[in-house]
């Protein structure tokens, strides 16, 4: 189910017709540099001024990565119930956030159009950089409404329905921070991310060792730091058309939050809270400019 924030009447579209523009004047959905009438995007083919380019938006799942058991959660209640109340906390420590912000500074060009998947009330984008548009997605509207960086947001449980209500090939970047472990259908979500990216667009998936244990999928809960990186790499590799994923790691000097094996540490991890420094992992891949098989 898709829920849109009441301030915004229609799903965000990259090339909307005038009646679809939201009321809020902050959001110019039709940048002056792009003319609406000369460009129409359909799901798989981009026609520009009557010229057809490669069908670069089609996404194909080559194989399933997870077994049925690997997708299970200990807490089987709907995710939307779990996120019904806002959590105005940060889920990772300052070092993790600083590393992530620096990565975004390096990889995301100013003026980009970005989707922050599984977002919350905070943004990790560098404050000084201006982007053309930042769209947020998450499960708690109150959190998303507080996020100062979002021009627009939508609420959707990706374990119920993976379709993103966005046009194909309309984004330069998709981000997913400390949330990939909650996806029960990651193959379909990654295929959707591929679809909405422009050729050359980047998907940055970052995570630490923290999690809401009861809500993380079995394959993640039972894994190690190494196997989790491998898992996310496989999510990318199972989609035809992503470049070979790249790994960025930054480990704390002394073991990190996962190192605390005491009952207190276990309870903190169960609650998705933890003291100590968080290990930083990011897996990054780009949408190929040309389809691999034509
Ligand atoms: C630990 S928070 C991370 C929030 C944010 N990315 C950040 O860095 O602060 C995990 C997020 O995963 C998202 N999430 C969890 N389960 C989800 C689901 N089934 N569908 C969509 N999003 C989900 C929620 O939006 C939640 O805010």
TrEMBL record:
Signal peptide: none annotated. It holds the Pfam family Methyltransf_11. GO terms for molecular function: S-adenosylmethionine-dependent methyltransferase activity. Residues 161-205 form the Methyltransferase type domain. One of its GO terms (biological process) is alkaloid metabolic process. This is Methyltransferase type 11 domain-containing protein. It comes from Camellia sinensis var. sinensis.
